[in-house]
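INTERNAL AUDIT FORM
Audit reference: QA-55
Scope: verify that the stored structure record matches its stored sequence.
Auditor: D.O.
Record contents follow.
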Amino acid sequence: MSAVALARRVAYDTIRAVHESDAYANLLLPTSIDRAGLTPADAALATELTYGTLRRQGTYDAVIAIAADRAVADIDPAVLDALRLGVHQLLSTRVASHAAVNESVELVRTDVSRGAAGFANAVLRRVSRDTPGDWMTRVAEAARSDDERLGLVSSHPVWIVRAFRRALAAEGRASELEALLTADNASPRVTMAALPGLAEVPVDARRTPFSPAGFRLGGGDPEGVVTESGGRIRVQDEGSQLAALALTRARPVSVGERWLDLCAGPGGKTALLAAEALAHGARLEANEVSPARAGLVRKALAAVPLEVPVSEEDGRVLTAAAPETYDRILVDAPCTGLGALRRRPEARWRKMPTDVPELTELQRELLSGAVSALKPGGIVAYVTCSPHLAETSGVVADVRREWGAAVEEVSAREVIRDLAASDPDLQPQADGSGRAQLWPHRHNTDAMSISLLRRV
């Protein structure tokens, strides 16, 4: 098997595992690349084929349905994944058409049957006869509404398209919807963080515009930089950096403050909090209900010379047992993850609108519990990697109503403006809150929502 064919095989097997076993591409793919012994160039190809296919799956399914003249639900799942991979190469890469068709057909022949390979060959040759523009026109014309057209062409479920439109409209920028959907399908640039007080931004790196800890490398392998630094330099989205720093920089830190990261897994924000706590003489505790993710938190903290106990409790139970205990709490709440679709593209096909009510109930309980665990004057940062208004402004509004005059809002937008080197262009929200909403198309970050509340 050639190196390029092996890269295709790694991509195909990863896509199959995502659909068959609910695997996460960002966790499985690096391991598969290592096991296959791919060169950096072939690893990059496998990565592009995997993520590109998963991101554009909705669009490719519409193309396949037209070309096959049958619903994709009627196509064998293993054949369908090979077709998706082939269509991605035909419509969105520079891979030669004959190679895209032949190699995808070979995957079907090897993994399914010769008969299925004949079907795949016919479908892919039908797709290869027309241009990407022609296929996008056909897909758009097949839509039954404007929202469905946007969803099919941009490869987003309609409910997510509508949730994004409402979130953008809340800051008067509904016209940016198509730019946001386009950004969701682009590969995110790798952003690094130098833990404050423990590492310096390399002299040849380019600083990020907003986070004082953030930078981007001019080239090379980021994992080599991480390893060489002993973990004090790490890969971390700039939005995640800002979420942690908004809490630590909301007001000056007093020596001896007690902090809590309530939902700490997988530990990137925890490590940044730990570095800030070490620099200012504060104490930090972390909690993560999932034992596996708690292990990742401990691993992330290994680079910081500060003792940080990591508990594995339900955050609601922990806060109920610790009234008026902490000066600062980060609630990086479990959420739909709609703000990280660039990095976890399969999430858009797994999440459903019916997931939102259960999540928002949990989010309200975690945030309200965190407020109860704050000392008077203490601050909680409520963070979601989702712009969905029910998960962001809705949850904060509910908790503010519950606590009444016992809590007041601190403007997260002002805090982030003060710590950023460049104007972050954070728009006022329709509800009048101080919530900061970051966007992939505007800030080149995940769509993080950050709110700050102070216990009176």
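Auditor finding: record pair retrieved intact. Residues 3-21 form the longest helix (19 residues).
Action required: none
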